[in-house]
Design a protein that fits this description.
- The protein starts with a strand and ends with a helix.
- With 254 residues, it is of the alpha/beta class.
- The protein contains eleven helices and eight strands.
Length: 254
């Protein structure tokens, strides 16, 4: 059985002090939430401080992005070498990176390869726009993104994929559980075709897009959804902890 994963993507929020207070609040409330892998992805400036807070806990640390070169004259970028000393995970190909910073499928593919090179586990994001969804192009967009992002990548059960429909991110308009599961099933079939059926069944695929404590149960109840990449709700300790606890409880009954 795939172990559920709940990851909090804090995006461009929290100062170092605010991040430390949020982590402390989350850790204080995480009793009795077994069977779920927990990951926090704060801004780069807080990674070192939060790594210290997470020492000796079961919560893992992730970064929100990285560049695909080891080092060099790339002002403002963060390399996998830098992250490998701090993090277990790294989010790659998030729709906001694609939309606001013009990241291509090819650039994301280079990042995925480089992450594995330095033993960082990618949380590789894919998702269609509202226009694509309404025009019935979801399958085409998603399969193209998955195939391009994983081109030349060796099969690995360490891969994590997050399906985040662009029209649901930060809008309060989440997909239904059945909608999300149908697309995630498509992703799993695409991985089976690219790699093999066994690895496809091991890879964890998350849903992301306006996930809250009020709707997490709907997603976790679906067979192919293995957790969530949580945005705004991960900035509220009580919300994030509730999402984790519900996932833990529902997993025990599946």
């Amino acid at each position: 059985m795939r172990k559920p994963l709940i990851a909090g993507n804090w995006k461009m929020n929290t100062t170092v002090d605010e991040a430390k207070k949020l982590v402390s609040a989350i850790l204080n409330d995480l009793d009795n939430a077994d069977g779920v892998e927990k990951v926090l992805c704060p801004p780069f400036i807080s990674l070192s401080s939060i790594k210290e807070l997470l020492e000796g806990t079961v919560v893992k640390l992730g970064a929100q992005n990285m560049y695909f070169e080891d080092k060099g004259a790339y002002t403002g970028e963060i390399s996998p070498i830098m992250l490998s000393e701090l993090c277990d995970y790294v989010i790659l190909g998030h729709s906001e990176r694609r939309q606001y910073f013009s990241e291509t499928d090819q650039a994301v593919n280079k990042k995925v390869k480089k992450a594995f090179e330095y033993s960082l586990k990618p949380i590789f994001c894919v998702g269609e726009s509202l226009a694509d969804n309404e025009a019935g192009r979801t399958e085409q967009v998603i399969t193209t993104q998955v195939r391009a992002g994983l081109e030349g990548v060796s099969p690995s059960p360490e891969m994590v994929i997050a399906y985040e429909p662009v029209w649901a991110i930060g809008t309060g308009k989440a997909a239904t559980g059945k909608q999300a599961n149908a697309t995630i099933s498509l992703i799993r079939r695409t991985i089976a075709d690219l790699w093999n059926g066994g690895t496809a069944q091991e890879v964890r695929i998350l849903y992301g897009g306006s996930v809250t404590s009020g709707n997490i149960a709907e997603f976790i109840a679906e067979a192919d959804i293995d957790g969530a990449l949580v945005g705004g709700a991960s900035l509220k300790s009580s919300e994030f902890v509730s999402i984790i606890r519900q996932t833990s409880s529902l997993k025990a009954t599946r």
